[in-house]
Fold these 2 entries.
Entry 1:
Amino acid sequence: MGINRTKMRWNGWGWADAPDPLSGNEAVWEWMASELGMGALMLTPAIPLEEIELPASRLSITALNGLAEIVGEEWVKTTKSDRASYARGKSYHDLLHLRAGNLSDAPDAVVFPANPLETLEIVQACSERHIALVPTGGGSSVVGGVTASPGKDQQGVVVLDTTRMGRVLTTDTDAMTAVVEAGAWGPELEEQLNEFGLTLGHYPQSFEFSTVGGWIAASGAGQQSSKFGRATRWLVGAKLATPKGFWTTECFPGSAAGPNLTDLVLGSEGTIGVITEATVRVQKKPQVKDYRGYLFKSFADGVTAARRISQAKLPVAMVRLSDADETHFFRTFSDAQKKKSFGRSIKKAIERQVLKSNGVPDRPCVMIIGIEGHQHDVDICQKKTAHIAKSLGAMAVGKSPGTQWYQGRFHGPYARDPMLDHGLGVDTLETSTRWSNIANLHETVLAAIDKAMREGAPVAGTHGIVMSHISHTYVDGASLYFTFVFPRDLEREVPQWLAIKKAATETIVEQGGTISHHHGVGTDHAAWLIEEKGPVGMNVLRAIKTELDANGVMNPGKLISQ
Amino acid sequence: MGINRTKMRWNGWGWADAPDPLSGNEAVWEWMASELGMGALMLTPAIPLEEIELPASRLSITALNGLAEIVGEEWVKTTKSDRASYARGKSYHDLLHLRAGNLSDAPDAVVFPANPLETLEIVQACSERHIALVPTGGGSSVVGGVTASPGKDQQGVVVLDTTRMGRVLTTDTDAMTAVVEAGAWGPELEEQLNEFGLTLGHYPQSFEFSTVGGWIAASGAGQQSSKFGRATRWLVGAKLATPKGFWTTECFPGSAAGPNLTDLVLGSEGTIGVITEATVRVQKKPQVKDYRGYLFKSFADGVTAARRISQAKLPVAMVRLSDADETHFFRTFSDAQKKKSFGRSIKKAIERQVLKSNGVPDRPCVMIIGIEGHQHDVDICQKKTAHIAKSLGAMAVGKSPGTQWYQGRFHGPYARDPMLDHGLGVDTLETSTRWSNIANLHETVLAAIDKAMREGAPVAGTHGIVMSHISHTYVDGASLYFTFVFPRDLEREVPQWLAIKKAATETIVEQGGTISHHHGVGTDHAAWLIEEKGPVGMNVLRAIKTELDANGVMNPGKLISQ
């Protein structure tokens, strides 16, 4: 029954009472400082909510009463805690603002409709009154997709939280589809589907704090997209509450009746309506999950293996290839975390010897191949993928790295808050391109981020770390995901980040990558969308928006910049 | 270098000099008459072009000169033969008009641009002058998709033939994509791709006389869609000449940068622009093709087998299941054609005995399973599909029915003209639905067509034949294709057809099918599109059309009824 945002960190990731995974581990911070060419890290705690003043509400009593009449008084929330929790998403950029006590984007109210009809009434009431409406599920956008800012001539912002609508309504095990309410968050959805032996299988890193509707609106991808597909592949049809009324899109298995308008809902980012229900493809819950590691001598060899696995249409769930720097970083990070463990140096020396005798260089590239399904099918696929990996000189290193990755697959975002508490900046960005351009895009984006981090460093001589991996593979190409860590310039945190973001995105656009593989557009990529859609395409997008949201109240400034 | 329409039958199917496949075979006509409850068939030849007068051209000399300035005088054609050839598509409805000498829809000119730039200039010239522009590739639409009729306040119609643009421009064997000119017709495209060992694998029944651009514009499907995909699966990106300029859509392997606008080109039916180029997924030319037949005791058993094969994700190219009536019809049709062959009755008696001892009823349902690829993979897939078929009580009847189907896979339309010459009506229509609704949709549509044919019969007691097959299967459902033959009411040919069409389509809509699985919308389905898209969706479609084609010159009346 919904994600209770007031139990989550309003200015960070996860539950408010979750333990700090790096607490008391000074070794990690020492190692991190040395990696960045710094002496020591400083403590930079966030400003607590108590010390922050929120802007006064912009909504009239009449307007608030109007909302309460629709959803009931208890479902219109206006407390400081609520308004702060819904001010922004979960990007590094968002956290900079929130941690600095900038809550200028706090919404005036948060409403929780119980059903599609209440949702429609809220949408239409906001449209009539020219109040900006920001739909949100888990609120985990990392591209400014849920920033609660008003558009031109709009005097207030209401956030619409969909998470009271979280039920699986029907399942059709002949068609292998389910009709679900869009506010179902990851664990809630899977729990219900699992009861029927089914799964959607959509596990983004944000799984614990994101919803079906959000996955569709942002056109997202789960980590196991090779088997379960991204939202574009599992969405069959959707129901939206738009200012023009309900819109239920087509739901046929193969139709030639004009353009498939369901596709316009994917990536619509709340700008044309609120997704209230979705028909989605489900699969049988896999019997076994087999995740294994391989060490490649070079990134190029790993890329070739990933391409061959994809083009051989082997039924893998995931092929994830880290570059040498990422492989090194997470290995040494993990070592730094476990520094106390006895006998480690002997074990490591033996390990190094084994790797050396197998021709693995000092800085290999790790690939995790995940396969899910029936034991028999998994075994066959495992043998075939191992064969391809080995044919490219990889050394199989067994299930342990796979299990370790799997267990930690949602943990990444939890490490960010402690890093921000230690004067560091950390962000990620992602793209995709055709196979023949992967090497070029990988190199040029790494170089652009590295250069921008050096140029923006607060102290000369310090620098950042940037690393990359492929995590989603297709017949024609793959995604590239970049993680970068750098010493924060406390005097100009936002401009420092903006410069890095700009350098990276411009390079991506110039070098033939998409501005986003699964994070979306939001506000942060909106300026570059025209490079991808072209001026004619942007006008098509605007025409659709204008048709459905003539008053421009739906999530203003997202997707299409104003 | 283009399909030369003047060498094709202007009022029928295929090359003008192609032999009549049923010529002199009176046995077939006798059999057909008896199947329809008729005494004998009469001869009803089409009115020859020489006897038909075309309406005068509506275009001014200035307008014609304007077109000639763009493409060169020799590429603006206005002869009677050209105008007649481009008046309409290839539906039964079209042929009724053409054979009756109704050429009121003949275009005023046909232009043949050599490249995208000339195409754009034609599009923009027509938009400025308010002349209707009908883009065409092979012109094989069977839903009125290329009828050359003007819209409101438009004084003339120009048909734009894309087939001078037929080259494969580039191939990327890393991404397994190719950039092709959209006017490439089937054989021309495959010939070029085959030189690189590649194939698109898109083989609709109209393959010989249709183009890549047409396949995209109509959101079509080839017969081997399970392996090669329908246009929605193989199209990566497109370039269009629109009244607002060139529009090149996104072309990334997985992008979350807003709605994928390439999807709006699929099924756009020439109403927003002319597709000039496309990036398409290609595959390696298959080493072997294995097509085999199975006889099922019931349609329901066959449907279950088709569903299991699809949901087991076996890499088949095609699963095609005829119902008992279709199986019977083509068997007896084939027998009637070969009546002279000696010893047939003894052979048939033996055959019947073998079938009986295998539990196959008198009226079984034949399934053709086609598998294409490497020998080893084909063998494995063949065993698995055979296992599923047999587990549902089917009898394997070997390669002969498969080979026979494969060899005749483009022949269907050639039998229509002789049937029309013999006083018969013949049409096909198709839909798709989820697996759990297949049996219901199959039965109700058959009943609706049968009833409408009886009600429209020219002589009491005569009736039609209607039969059906599944030819495209998906994880969630399948297509249903209906063929029906009936005695034509020569006094009211068009109303007779319209009544059948209406009865079938209304039943499809009521019973949860799509109005088209691969024929498209055109003019013939336009009235029902709102049932599928909803009023909000229709307004979105109109908004897109208005944005790109403000003067409404692009293929007026198609997709969106006026």
Entry 2:
Amino acid sequence: MSKKPVILVTNDDGITSKGISALVEVAQEFGDVVVVAPDSPQSGMGHAITIEQPLRLDKVEFHGEFIGWQCSGTPVDCVKLAVNKVLHRKPDLCVSGINHGSNSSINVIYSGTMSAAMEGAIENIPSVGFSLNNYDLNADFTASKHFARIIIKNILENGMPEKTLLNVNIPNKSKKDINGIKICRQAIAKWEEEFDERTDPRNRKYYWLTGKFQLYDEGADTDEWALANDYVSVVPVQFDLTAHHALPHFNNMNWNA
Amino acid sequence: MSKKPVILVTNDDGITSKGISALVEVAQEFGDVVVVAPDSPQSGMGHAITIEQPLRLDKVEFHGEFIGWQCSGTPVDCVKLAVNKVLHRKPDLCVSGINHGSNSSINVIYSGTMSAAMEGAIENIPSVGFSLNNYDLNADFTASKHFARIIIKNILENGMPEKTLLNVNIPNKSKKDINGIKICRQAIAKWEEEFDERTDPRNRKYYWLTGKFQLYDEGADTDEWALANDYVSVVPVQFDLTAHHALPHFNNMNWNA
């Protein structure tokens, strides 16, 4: 590649998170980096877009140095605004994260990090979401950076199949304790909700969403298996949600009641 | 079925919308209906969940009659709260809508209506999202009710394959002008964004998300084709986002750089 690629970096934890700084550092080794990220935490935003309210987009400086653009909207809004109002072109790569916390298995559905990457893929931009299996604001991203470097290099050199993005999850281990990168499928799992019910000072009830992660999949080809066995999991993800295998079932039903 | 089924009705336009009333009327022909829906419009919320704020859940009466529960959160929150804090069991069916506006093709990704149904499916509840191709608050749901009736009856009698839900979109036509129900795949399409840039009274810029729908799919087996040809489109949807067809491609790459 003779010209330096343009790399869009976003996330869902917000522009000031440690994880996005780590990803920016890696991306800068490969190209010209533009950061457009939420101005506040947007975890769990899924593929939300902002249509009931207008969006703000402001330059962010730190110690007098321009570090990127913050957006008042969701991670998906950030990608749309980056392409249309910041870059005025499609970047050569869109990377999202590094998320503070896992986005493996069913979490891909709820994740703002992954939805930003998915929006990139819908725009036909090679896109990757990265997550570290550690929710701590001060998590150590050293190993994550190593594997992000390998994956970004690979995608910039080899490209991405059409209508595909990658969901990368990294074990919370040091580099020497990680066994490598494993291509996986999304494990079958769900959250068992347990709402925490409380009463406010005005005696009205309110609820905090909480829950326990339940894995229903023994496969050694899943992202959960990879993470449990100290591998970086890489799941190719698509945004065609058609359950193609179920089409014959429904075609055989009588719909003319 | 000897016992009446319990049917959860939700949506993303909010509990006072005309579309949810239409769906409640149909559902009541088949079972005991419980409504848990957002207290305000939640269009475009995708699969967002509320984790940064607590949730409210309040009974709603109209003309002294209890009509359901309103929730301060997203459509997905509504399904989670309905199962855990209202029903204390899984309903026999979860229906979402009838949305004011289409959720065909790529819109399934952004749609709160469809994410509520997807959350039902993740909970292993047979789930269907319904949308009418008309954004008007006072849209006519007569034909929609007819087709919702056929589909609900079919699913209650024949069940739903595991890990599958249905995305139903209904043309904005009278019943006699609709040619029937067609099982489809999700068409390849995207939105071409065009942010509407304005300046506020304090001289700061803000942006409204807007755009043009672009169809990149000529297939006669797609939901867009069905709607353009006056069929009700029914797309089986899955929440395993793995791009299974792309696994060999990535397995053949060298990841040990």
